[in-house]
Structures are given as C-alpha cells and as structure tokens.
Amino acid sequence: MWIILKYGGSSQTLEGYRSVIRRLSEIDNDYKIVIVVSAVSGVTSGLIDYCNNRSVAKINSIVHRHVRLLDDCGLSKESLSNSFRELLTKSIEIERT
C-alpha cells in the first residue's frame, strides 16, 4: 500500500523538515511512501513576478531564500552554488533583451 505525503511551501523550513522526519518515523515499514514538496514559500509568486518584470533583483531574492534555508539546516551552499550562479547569469541575459 502507498502513502502520499504533500508538503507545501511553508513546510520548507528546518522545523518543517523535522516534522516530516517525525511523521515518516510514525509510518509502518510495510507502506511505500511518496513525498511531494512544493517550492519554498514565496518562490512561485517570485518567479511569476520575475516573468512579468524581468527583474534580476527578484531572482537574487529567490536565491537568497534558498541560501538562508540551507544555512538554517546546516547544509553546504557549495552543492547549489553552480546552479545559483547559472540562474543569476541567465536572468541577467534575459533582463538585457
């Protein structure tokens, strides 16, 4: 049997992740689990705003949200630094067009 757990953007915090871990530890091992996560809170609306305004500042704000989340969780930013850099570079190219 399957269990599907969906976590929204406001769950994308250190405490939210701890809650997910607690919930997973309560589920019987006989179940197969699928976890669906939304974008970090505010990111979807930020991307829509970026598409409407092409503001590099908006992309920078999104990157900083993720960096803060990594810091809060005690995770290395290095694993995502190339992705962040590429995202910012592409947004600057788009803003110039």
Explained architecture:
With 97 residues, the chain is of the alpha+beta class. 61% of the residues lie in helices and 12% in strands. It contains four helices and two strands; from the N terminus they run βαβααα. It has helices at residues 14-25, 43-53, 56-72, 78-96, and strands at 2-7, 32-37. Strands 1-2 form a two-stranded parallel sheet. Strand 1 (2-7), helix 1 and strand 2 (32-37) form a beta-alpha-beta unit. Helix 2 runs antiparallel to helix 3 and helix 3 packs antiparallel against helix 4 (78-96). The longest helix has 19 residues, at 78-96. The chain is elongated. The mean pLDDT is 87.
Write the layout of secondary structure elements.
Layout: E1 2-7, H1 14-25, E2 32-37, H2 43-53, H3 56-72, H4 78-96
Parallel strand pairs: 1-2
Helix pairs in contact: 2-3, 3-4
Name a few traits of the molecule:
97 residues; alpha+beta; two-stranded parallel sheet; 4 helices; 2 strands
The helix-strand sequence is EHEHHH
How many runs of DSSP E, i.e. beta strands?
2
Biggest sheet: strands side by side, in what order? 1-2
Low-confidence stretches: none
Compute the number of helices.
Answer: 4
Summarize the main sheet: 2 strands, parallel
Head-to-tail CA distance between termini? 51 Å
Strand portion: 5-15%
Provide the gyration radius in Å. 17 Å
Helix and strand content put the structural class at: alpha+beta
Give the % helix: 55-70%
Mean model confidence by pLDDT: 87
Q: Tell me, what's the shape?
A: elongated
